[in-house]
Amino acid sequence: MHVVVIGAGVVGTSVAAELAERGTRVTVLERDLPGGGTSATSYAWVNANGKEPEPYFRLNHAGVRAHHELGGSGTEWFAPRGHLEVAADEAHEHHLARRVASLRERGYPTEEVPLRRVQELVPDLVLPDDARLAVLFPEEAHVFPLPYLGMMLGRARRAGAEIRTGAEVTALEPAGTGGRVRTADGSTIAADAVVLATGRWTGEVAQSAGTTVPLIDYGAPGDITVGFLAVTNPLPTSVDRLLTTPWLNVRPAGGGRLLLQALDLDKEAAPDSVPAPTSPLAQEFLRRLRTALLGTEGARIEQLVVGRRVMPADGLTIAGTTPEQPWLYAVATHSGVTLAPFLGKAVAGEVLGEEEPRLAPFRPGRFAAGMTGPGPRSPRRPGEQ
Hints:
Distance between the termini: 40 Å
Radius of gyration: 21 Å
Shape: globular
Strand content: 15-25%
């Protein structure tokens, strides 16, 4: 059996590695370079925290567990240090408390941390005077996407997969019981099955096969598809886990650097207009960082990017064969990093004829009933999904 996987992000490479290790002939086509799309500009938070409805929560919790099974107690790409969230006003406290109650009912590990113990977990945290509630989510983790990609690409290559970069797909066509892939250099590749894992470009590529996979595209600054991420210089501060504060989300970025996110600032985010590392926006990130953590007096922003989110039309994962072209399997999700190792095994199994029940609610065919999406929404507070 020959399977073509289009897209070499965290999901596509995971699927390719699993297929190849199961003895399938695999060709991976990547338009640019592996990780050049959404994978490289992700906060990369592994979690099922606040993800609704129930089937989507269960899917993401399976993703969390898959990371722990694959990464164990920690690797170059996986940091299973948990996530600490601190609420410092009444609205955030109520939001967090409701979320924790729901998660506990579903068996998701949570631990309320007495405020006097918070700095044992993050010694350099400046706890707000009006802090009201702190919760540790011990199963949650963060991933370094490019080392993860390197690991999966290595597995795929060792198992015999062919990885082609600079291979832009121009058309997908039925051919007998399978499909045919045409690329910009004039090549034609016949396949028994094609896995479409092209992130936010999934809908565009699917159209060339005469099928629809509806995603929300960027429409205006601050909409649901975009968000800022800022990377600092190396700093002498002790943060080894994900940290959500009232004003700033922080996680290690490697080499002493920190990755910063402030969801209420995303109202200005636009992919065609990225502020400079010395811009007022960057200075606001730094102001919030210095308020939140000791040891950050010498902080500066080395990189400011606008991350592009993969957002299916209803906000939920898409995974399954397309109704019009059963040889074409589409997979697209906002939770790509969380779900990557789970989807790698699940999608590979489904392509080879083994149905995964947890993917049943997420088939592309659900959109035929006219299901609509969440659309753009107002800026979110730190701690909200």
